Amino acid sequence: MLLAYVLGSVVAGLGMQFAIGGVIELLYYRRGRAGAEAWKCQPARWPSAANRRREILLGAANMTVASMASGAFAWGVATGALRTTIYFDRGSGIAASVGLTLAYFLVTDLGLYAAHRFLHRPLLFRHIHRWHHKFTSPTPFTAAAMHPVEFALYQSIMAAPLFVLPIPLVGLVGVLLYQNYVALIDHSGVRFHSWFPWQPPTQFHDDHHVHFHVNYGQNLGLWDRLCGTWRRHGRRYGKEVFGGRGEAIGGARDEGLVDYSRAPRIGEEVRSATERQEASP
């Protein structure tokens, strides 16, 4: 029975990673490569073949080990070998279940933001988090391509509240699916806009890979806004500019936060160029 849980978890984890990544790879990186200016966050920058192989292998290895651990965890919960606060019935009511699910989402997202920002401390960045930042032009397969210690840290943040914070099983599954989906889309390199007002578009996290120490949020832009680490106009960011607030550029005017919501949507650049060409004499 344990083996079934572990294998099922591995198939689900790798299946989601390669299904979403494969679709984006086919539609954009293969069929749409010639028109990259219309959809790519960084049209002039492409990952090398070596980096592509490295991110796929490293990401798959991390996902396999993490899925095995998740499968064993699920088995422990199902059999009662682990005592968690996950519950299966609706005795607490729908409103309470929704509230607890939201609380779990907020607590874990804040934890992910804090851990991510902590990993950007100079020593930890150079020895651990830099593994992930070698991929300066991310693709969906970059999402899980990181140092195993970092991956384990994020998994621990997701698991820890399950021993103290009551949460319905359906809410837990929903949050985990949503967070994994966002991680894959955020690293896609494709200029996607979010369906949800609380989630920044993909350009937000893509800029994190371009400018390094800024835009740390995983699923929400809230923590970057509150903590002053949202990228700003008129400030310089880079590999050696730690902290998340950037450096003031001499003589440059600080014009406030970068407004990612005003970035052009996929295809708008192509349509605008076509309209200008048709309107010209």
Topology:
Layout: H1 2-30, H2 49-79, E1 86-87, H3 94-118, H4 122-133, H5 148-159, E2 167-168, H6 169-186, H7 202-211, H8 222-227, E3 235-236, E4 247-248, H9 268-279
Helix pairs in contact: 1-2, 3-5
Please state the overall shape, judged from the principal axes of the Cα atoms: globular
How do the strands line up in the largest sheet? 1-2
Number of strands: 4
Measure the end-to-end span: 73 Å
| Rg from Cα | 20 Å
**Total count of helical runs of at least 4 residues:** 9
Beta-sheet strand percentage? Answer: under 5%
Number of structurally distinct domains: 1
How is this structure best described in words?
- The protein is mostly helical and 281 residues long.
- The protein has one domain.
- Helices cover 55% and strands 3% of the residues.
- It is built from nine helices and four strands; from the N terminus they run ααβαααβαααββα.
- It has a two-stranded parallel ribbon. A two-stranded antiparallel sheet has the order 3-4.
- The longest helix is centred in the first third of the chain and has 31 residues, at 49-79.
- The radius of gyration is 20 Å and the shape is globular.
- 30% of the residues are buried.
